[in-house]
Amino acid sequence: MQQSLRIAKSNALVEAAYKLTLNEQRLLLAVIARIDSRRTMRHFTFSITAHEFAQMFDVELHTAYEALQDASTSLFERDIRTFDGRTKARFRWVERIAYVDGESRVELTFTLHVAPYLSLLHKNFTAYGFHQVSQLKSSYSIRLFEMLIQYRKTGWVQITLDKFRERLMLESSYKRYDNLKARVIKPAVKELEEKSSLIIQWEPIRNGRKIEALRFTFREDEQRDLFKDELEDEVVAEVD
After folding, report:
1. What is the tens place of the pLDDT at every residue in 215-238?
2. Is 1.10.10.10 the CATH classification of the domain at 131-231?
3. Which CATH architecture has domain 2-117?
4. Which DSSP symbol is given to 35?
5. Which partner from 24, 112, 169, 186 sits 20 to 30 angstroms from 93, CA to CA?
């Protein structure tokens, strides 16, 4: 089942600032995988059971119960922050979320503001196979994967340190580069190389003694990326 599931997001959403726990991220991915990004989103309410969650992420059923309960208590408070060069916007992922205890099921309703980032995507979007992130255990790894795969056509991306922190909403955390490197960057790169299709090299970009940016160079292991062939006829990760 996982091999046929597809995640697609507007590049603006990939580049947005937001912070999610692993359970929140997984819940959203499980739902987004059910959306046909090429069509209009005709309904905003989706549901997923603990049994479905357990199958999708290959976890024990009791773990899926706990994950859904955990995500349902906190996802409502999470927001997305975007900036198009002119307007700064802030909006929630969901307008309603509920855990139906007797059915071990979560129901969530996306906000109207999220829909344009997940539907009617014909250009300037990033798509990848759900299986490429389903085994990741860190929300930072998932975010870094999306940041990189957006540039699969070029195989490299450079991002300022400030922008990297902003996207992950870490402006007040890991202020020292050494801490950011040890707690976020290196573990995420290591996990992606072990569990995704990416082979990654990265380096800090310095201006004198100050580190100003991060440069990631990567390639995809075609034997591990079973989804890649399906994208050849699509406009994927088109960048303005």
Report:
1. 999 999 876 655 555 554 454 444
2. yes
3. Orthogonal Bundle (1.10)
4. S
5. 186
